[in-house]
Specification:
single chain; mainly alpha; 5 helices; about 0% strand; flat; LPLAT_7/PORCN-like; transmembrane helix; transmembrane; lysophospholipid acyltransferase activity; membrane
């Protein structure tokens, strides 16, 4: 919930345009998408890197095209214009993020609270 809260505060900080809220809402899901993808895709033991095909696909889709899509929320500002543009590209980024977001919620481990030590 930290990322979601941070993005909500950022949207309010930048202004009350609906496009900001739409973009910042998807940014939170993108952060979770990245976390899940990086946990699921193993690192090669020899090179210490993920496969080259993954780096190319990830960089050119989620990173570049995704952030271009999110920038439209700041450029167009009102919800109708942002919706019109996002629907012309089939809302691909939010639709890609939603299953990974649900997966992260379902597989999240509850955080254990550190035990307080007694000093006598």
């Amino acid at each position: 919930m930290r990322v979601e809260t941070t993005m909500l505060v950022s949207a309010i900080w930048h202004g009350t345009y609906a496009g900001y809220f739409m973009s910042f809402g998807v940014v939170a899901m993108c952060a979770i998408l990245e976390d899940v993808i990086f946990k699921l895709l193993p690192v090669d033991a020899e090179t210490g890197e993920r496969p080259k095909w993954f780096r190319v696909v990830y960089t050119h889709t989620i990173r570049c095209r995704g952030f271009e899509m999110l920038a439209t929320g700041f450029l167009l500002k009102n919800a109708a214009d942002v919706h019109h543009f996002w629907s012309s590209i089939y809302y691909w980024l939010p639709l890609l993020c939603i299953p990974f977001y649900i997966y992260s919620v379902k597989t999240a481990q509850p955080k254990s609270k550190p035990k307080k030590s007694r000093q006598e």
